[in-house]
Amino acid sequence: MAEVDTQVRKLKNFVNGEWVESKTATYEDVYNPATKEVVAQVPLSTKEEVDQATEIAQKAFEEWKNVPVQKRARILFNYQQLLQQNQDELARLITIENGKNTNEALGEVGRGIENVEFAAGAPTLMMGDSLPNIATDMEATNYRYPIGVVGGITPFNFPMMVPCWMFPMAIAMGNAFVLKPSEKTPLLTEKLADLLNEAGLPKGVFNIVYGAHDVVNGILDHPEIKAISFVGSKPVGEYVYKRGSENLKRVQALTGAKNHTTVLNDADLDQAVKDTIASAFGSAGERCMACSVVTVEDGVADDFIAKLKEAADNVKMGNGMDDGVFLGPVIREENKQRTLDYIETGEKEGAKLVRDGRKDENEDGYFVGPTIFEGVSTDMKIWQDEIFAPVLSVIRVSHLKEAVEVANQSEFANGACLFTSNASSIRYFRENIDAGMMGINLGVPAPMAFFPFSGWKSSFYGTLHANGKDSVDFYTRKKVVTARYKTPDFE
Ligand code: NAD
User: Is 288 in the pocket of ligand 1 (CB under 6 A)?
Assistant: First the structure.
């Protein structure tokens, strides 16, 4: 933590459509993880600043909810255009603050834009239902209304996509929004806010309060915040879900993961290797949909592991801005240290290091190379914990049933993938695997904006997931009107 008095640019909060200096005395350095350079300082704002932003948002909500839905949608259409026009700059900011390579950053921008496109369908999405004849002369209609001010709390690993899971749909439905981005990756959200202004969003509908746990607690406790969307780690998600629910709010908390991929004897092995490398080591393994464990059938295990190692040896690590770089840094020094500790733990637990990423260590930034263990078992910490780094475990299995049994022992159940050419195996996997998102012959089964992001078990707390129709339900409340209209007497 640094003093306020410094040459590095200090970020401001975004309240009522303007950038306002935080009243806090505490700022935290924001790093480029590929260079360790301090690129900005983020205020750790106070609870009072959450109160002020929420008050503004509440006032803005009173007007915004009455703006006709198609006019709200039109602002999102403008926003979509602006995001497209600025995609290179948005991607550049993601690479600077998060470290993922330019292609992945551009992919993330595209995913964020999809959410805006989906939310721009608000006039259709907000339609209710009605039944004209529920009894003699009686009808019932179900109307949808916004719920008020929504709070969003987001992680460092998708600075654009994850906030876009939340605020475009929330505001399209007529709510106002207070966002607390990750203090590790706040830069991108500045641009998101500026472009919302440019798109014509009325002041106060979207606000940002930068900070850490004080801001989160401010959001969790404020009586005028009616719903909370959280994405982050399991312990924090559990805390947010409990405290938010105790305060009688709607909460959706998308949390950690330990995603299993199964490779069967009849799989296209080259495809499985290519997709597993991209899934396990893309974004430095810092994805909630990253493959962390491969269960591979005995018949192809030797071949698969050899090919995997060869492909991992060819991964180019470095600054995500540089041509051809695939693997960027992890986010901070402590994440790197934690990763190195896990590699040591894996060795002590008796797993065999097929590829040791420690040898690629590079002091320019927080780099750890692709690491692969085999001979991993479910009593090991490297199998149980979400490592959230480029570390992959491989487990040999005799058949698909055993692979499913291994995966289902995990407390997490976000995504799971299967590589096979057999339809019956696919059906068996679909019917038996504990996972809310499943991929067949692909590595990252992250659903598009119009489907729910539907983790199970400890990967999600709540009822309605982010995205898809769930998000429409989460950001609206319903009013069912039952009415009697006596048939006119024409006699
Ligand atoms: P994190 O839980 O550390 O932080 C998430 C948010 O919570 C941040 O805004 C942070 O400031 C806040 N926070 C952190 N500690 C807090 C505390 N003690 N009290 C109150 N607020 C606190 O997560 P992260 O490291 O930024 O992100 C990585 C995690 O996010 C991984 O576990 C990953 O699996 C998860 N994630 C899940 C999904 C999903 O869809 N399930 C998507 C992306 C990331």
Answer: yes
